[in-house]
Amino acid sequence: MVDHFIMQMRPLFGEEEKKAICDYMDEDGFITEFKRTAQFEQMIADYTGAKHCIVVNNGTISLTLAAMAVGVVADDEVIVPNYTMIASPNAVKMFGAVPVFVDVEPDTLCLDIELVKKAITPKTKAIMLVSANGRPPSVGIAAFEALAKEKGIELIEDSAQSLGSWFPDGRHVGRAGRVGSFSFSSPKIVSTGQGGALITDDDEVARRLRRLKDFGRSGGGNDIHDSIGFNFKFTELQACIGIEQMRKVPARVIRKKEIWKRYQEKLAGIDGVSLFPHDLALTAPWFIDVRVERREGLIDYLKQRNVGTRVMYPPITRQAAYDLPGDYPVSEDIGRRGLWLPSAVQLSDEEIDHVCVAIRDFYEGPKNR
């Protein structure tokens, strides 16, 4: 059996993507972003319902530009969950803003809004709400919107894992904040190898984003600069892949939900294993995330059966890159017990069953291991 976690990390490219690239190269066009990039952006905007979509070279830079576009500057504080990929705080630290870490809800792994309220200071400029694995916060997105409005701070959505997931009010995840961000790195539902996208309904924010990613140019193709900007542009080759990937999103979303449901059924009743909940009417699980007991033993046992896994994000404050004091019981528990199981959209039902039988055998087999 193939290590299916490694398969999850591979771009899901097929013959359609290969043909799109070959067709483009045969046209002898420019490699830098142009018409296909605009088409890819429009497909994302149409799918999410956003007025504007701006694609950039990766999902970390998309968060950096999101913060800059809404007015975050050096020394401003940005509230960030302590459970997230480290790109979230790094994105604002890159230009001198200060990430302030807050613990998360135990079921959704989204920011705990009561702890967010306590963390707000006069220096707080923004809240970066990460929708972990497509899940919205249990208190509802409207509660975060109201808090941001009340405090006069910006709401930025890190929706890197959430393409294909929706809020109960019908908006796509990423639409609630003033700006939302997606990632197109290898394990995502849409992958262009690297890449990121920003969505917003705010015309001025969209204008700033387009200038920030293109040297601060006052218009496309000129060398007149009325603001500071950088070079975070996309490429037409990535767009060729992205266009084909977007066409597959509806089917992939369906399959992701089927995979999670099968795991839920096959792992039911096992002491020591609990899946994080999902409302499949709204969310498309990016990975199969679980809390497990005796995690290291389970990892080794599954590896012997050629089943790959990966530990979930450890708390950022405990990593050497930040090494900050504080009490974060939920994110610290995930650092001890959180595990991602094989999640690739290519998984067959039989392969999922193989994984689940191995997990059940570890916990319920001879001598209970």
TrEMBL record:
Belongs to the DegT/DnrJ/EryC1 family. The keyword Transferase applies. CDD domains: AHBA_syn. GO terms for molecular function: transaminase activity. This is DegT/DnrJ/EryC1/StrS family aminotransferase. The lineage of its organism: Bacteria, Pseudomonadati, Pseudomonadota, Alphaproteobacteria, Hyphomicrobiales. PANTHER family: BLR5990 PROTEIN, TRANSAMINASE. The keyword Transferase applies. Keywords: Aminotransferase, Pyridoxal phosphate, Transferase.
